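Recap for those who missed Tuesday's class. We walked through two folding examples back to back. For each one, the amino acid string is listed first and its predicted structure tokens come directly after. Nothing is annotated here on purpose, so try labeling regions yourself before you check the end of the notes.
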Amino acid sequence: MAEDLSIISGTKAEQYQSLIPQIKALVEGETDLIANLANVVGALKEQFDWFWVGFYIVKQAELVLGPFQGPVACTRIKKGRGVCGASWEQAATLIVPNVEAFPGHIACNSLSKSEIVVPVIRNGEVVAVLDVDSDQLDSFDDTDKTFLETIVSFILFQ
């Protein structure tokens, strides 16, 4: 596939429905994890123009910053800390309408207002999380949850 995306406007669901086959085509047949993570992040950032989009990869007892787009970020996060660490610990997608109301939120950037974190689960273990931040309150909902969980399912971790 050419590395050009067809960016559309429309409802959030319509945007995801257009983007998902494009992301799938980008990662299919590519075995390099970092390249695939980078392309997923780039596609999501380009389509939705969120404040921050990136992956944290589980390495030993921490989440370690992976490919991202947006301002500089926290490099390492412990299990259970902040939204990313909580998503890892719970092995569940977390939607936070107002990050300042989340107990133990890690403020990597004070401009972040809402967040969704989607765990990447392989063989029953969380191997990474997709973290998306918005500079607006209440930016994420079940539509994002459903489609982002589908997107992370395309990524091969070996």
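Example two. Treat it independently of the first, because the proteins are unrelated.
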Amino acid sequence: MRIIPAIDIIDGKCVRLTQGDYDQQTTYESNPVDVAQAFEDMGFEYLHVVDLDGAKSGKPQNLQVLKQICSQTSLKVDFGGGIRSEDQLYTVFDCGVQQVNVGSFAVKNPAAFVGWLSKFGGERLILSADVRERNIAISGWQENSNFSLLPFVTQMVDQGLKYLVCTDIAKDGMLLGPSVDLYSELTLAFEGLKVVASGGVANQSDIENLVETGVDGVIIGKAIYEKTIDPKKLLNNVG
């Protein structure tokens, strides 16, 4: 199982939100590039970067920081936040990212997202499904859609989707454990789909529980910043 630390960016700074609430923001570091380099020094190989300004506005806002992270580390970076057009996809890939997460746009414009899957390939695009009670939320988690998770993912898998990052908003930033049942349901329903869990991880036992679900990876944010989990122990046991 891949261990993927997270950097969420607002106004060029490394932050974390609680349950996707922009009013519940904690700033951890002023320079996300320093944080990324620290993750690399710890032994991580992957990094999940979210432009929260972009997610809210509908256009990536922190591209210079993203470019610096990609150029000043060897981390395999996946990025999300505000991708709404093919031109933006090209711009983000030019920054050096390996994969791009698409969430709101895929829900609002499924036909166009399917076209992107065909053009860029299933290895480079990730469907980012942020869920609240099994329904997908969009626009930086500020708005609920009318799509249920499993039917929508089924539709995209049939069109070549290979990667899914699924975040349970109720768990995110709470340090109360991940939605193990949700991820077990996804891995059972979609054999061959690489599911990445996100939200709620607090300790080593949470990681062990996720291993049992068969997910491809787990994104960890607050547990690392709040030091409730030991990165070295984590990598030695799982990574």
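Answers for example two:
The chain has one domain: 2-237.
The domain at 2-237 is CATH 3.20.20.70 (TIM Barrel).
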